[in-house]
Amino acid sequence: MPAWSLDGKPLLGVSVFAVVDVPLEHLLGQRFATFRMVHLPTAADLTSAWSELPSTGLRPHFTLRLHRSDEAELRRLLVALGPERDNPQSGARAIWPRRADVYQVDIRADLNDEDDAGYLWTFLDEAAEPARIVPGALVVAGDEDAAAVC
User: Phi then psi for 16, rounded to 5 degrees?
Assistant: First the structure.
């Protein structure tokens, strides 16, 4: 069963958000604040190149419905989307703040340091409270700049 379907058929497509009720800067700064680059085609650009642009999900979400997943379809899509542009609102709003006052690291770890089996490793004596680090416990590992629940 496909993850998404439309009219009972699998939906292969690309999400598109339209600037309808809010200014472009608001959409870029809220919904796309984490994207450094964006495509900004006009509705006319998309509808002239694409026959199917159904409204999907909540407004202002649409889907550019692809017919195939091949190189020719990808080239057609990239032409319709136009050039990549800098998002002037990139970083305007941190969706997942990474500040030391938001969380406390339970055990220091390099989140990119994996052993041969693919597991993160660190030293138990680097834990804030070593007694809390037990099998099955959820802990925050990493440092003040990058942390994850483990």
Answer: -135, 135
What's the whole-number mean pLDDT along residues 92-114? 69
Dump pLDDT digits (tens) for 57-100: 777 788 888 888 889 988 888 898 999 999 998 876 655 555 54
Q: Is residue 141 classed exposed, middle or buried when 0-12, 13-18 and 19+ CB atoms within 10 A define those classes?
A: buried
Q: Which residues pair with residue 148 across a beta bridge?
A: 141
Radius of gyration of the chain (CA): 22
Distance CA 11, CA 18 (A): 19
Alpha carbons 148 and 150: distance in angstroms, whole number: 6
Contact 24, 49 (CB under 8 A): no
Query: Is residue 45 pLDDT above 80, yes or no?
Result: yes
This prediction has a pTM of: 0.54
Q: Are 43 and 50 in contact (CB under 8 A)?
A: no
